[in-house]
Amino acid sequence: MAPIQVKKVCCIGAGYVGGPTCAVIALKCPQIQVTIVDLNQARIDAWNSPDFELPIYEPGLADVVKATRGKNLFFSSDVDRGIQEADLIFVSVNTPTKKSGVGAGFGADLHYVESATRRIAAVASSSKIVVEKSTVPCRTAESMRTILEANCKPGCRFDILSNPEFLAEGTAISDLFNPDRVLIGSLQTQEGKDACAALASVYANWVPKERILTVGLWSSELSKLAANAMLAQRISSINALSAICEATGANIDEVAHAVGYDSRVGPKFLRASVGFGGSCFQKDILNLVYLSESLHLPEVAAYWRQVVELNEYQKRRFSKIVVDALFNTITGKHIAVLGFAFKADTGDTRESPAISLIRDFLAERAYITVYDPKVEEAQIWMDLSEACPHLTLDQIKRQVTIVHSALEACKSKEAIVIATEWKEFREIDWQTVYNNMTKPAFVFDGRLLVDADKLRRIGFKVKVIGRGEVL
Ligand SMILES: NC(=O)c1ccc[n+]([C@@H]2O[C@H](COP(=O)([O-])OP(=O)(O)OC[C@H]3O[C@@H](n4cnc5c(N)ncnc54)[C@H](O)[C@@H]3O)[C@@H](O)[C@H]2O)c1
Ligand SMILES: O=c1ccn([C@@H]2O[C@H](COP(=O)(O)OP(=O)(O)O[C@H]3O[C@H](CO)[C@@H](O)[C@H](O)[C@H]3O)[C@@H](O)[C@H]2O)c(=O)[nH]1
Fold it and tell me: What global pTM score does this model have?
């Protein structure tokens, strides 16, 4: 049988994954028509905005969209039409941690995946390859298959693939252009393998064949959770060591360098920080914890849970470092928080450590001034309101100010807390910052960003995560 040719792709979910991933498919496969659909009309309008004010900030994304939109890339809120026309459909909807019911606080909320799947079942009138792009618990593809097969119209068939996404925010476009690997999981039946070959042939337009890995469905689903759990585990390991460094006078940069030089460990992802954030690590580990518990593997669950607990500890520990250094009280003191995004080069604030820090500082009744180059003001108010349910927005606004430059944020403050590793914070005119601050002027670097010695020469008292030196 001739290999299945993919001509029309639909992506359900125009978010951080669906948007960039399918825009890159459109760029690399001009012969394929790609339609990205979403129920959120405002998001679709932003993707279609005439001046390319896209709903997410990602370096290089606007260029990809400029090169393809209106040619072979379309954004639409007509979900049904997108489904009907496509021969391959990516399901790239959100899978947040469940907030209530069985598994609340751990398991994945799969209702968006289920409703997208039910929509495909309801409107598809021809055969489709349905690709699970969202990060999901192991065996979700089976539930999708049950829903689809129970509703299949005569003459139609559905093949389900798992194709988890490994892009990181802030580097999404380069990750997609040059992925370490593309992982495709399928049933090991002839039909499953044919569907897998069809999707592999899409990626083969730009990804070297040896980087396209094909495995069983359940291995593919579990590999995504495993990859995130092991990456986050490295950060919690280095952050645990950062606490030992501070207590002993060792330097976490030197320790990470020495350990990472061992080729079995490797140098990447060993940067100590105020804690990891982002929409994926915590959610996916909790998901793995839940899966382990459901499988009656409590020791395995406890092992992975500790990665998240250590991360919470690191955030609390950093807040305490600030309070302790400021003479054990920050009540009524003025603190600048530089950065609100969960990492540099993104406007995304999901699970950002900055939110936990500011929540802790508000509990101590400090005054906070926030600056982030990419996060919208409305987003900051929303995140702080959610993090501090006992305060009204008016009460929060009495204690928090949002400004539009780092210099403005630091003016007349007693302390600066670096929460996100934006490059521009390294390049601020630190002498001017110092001149305009209340003395003694403190800098707390939660991202190993600044040249601490240079700042000390200016006169700052500097505390860097994972370094035992005296202020
Ligand atoms: N953000 C990342 O860096 C990243 C990386 C790899 C994998 N993932 C995974 O990819 C998935 C999507 O993540 P995201 O960050 O893009 O989420 P997101 O919230 O940015 O986007 C999801 C979109 O899906 C839409 N949606 C939900 N249900 C729908 C439905 N039934 N029909 C049409 N649209 C619907 C929502 O309106 C939203 O715009 C998650 O499972 C996540 O874990 C995320
Ligand atoms: O050495 C490091 C590396 C990262 N971080 C922090 O860890 C968090 C996550 O960073 P990163 O992994 O770069 O960004 P994400 O966009 O969350 O990407 C992760 O989560 C995605 C969603 O599943 C996966 O696709 C990616 O492969 C995986 O890296 C951020 O707060 C970083 O500041 C550190 O503290 N130290």
Answer: 0.96
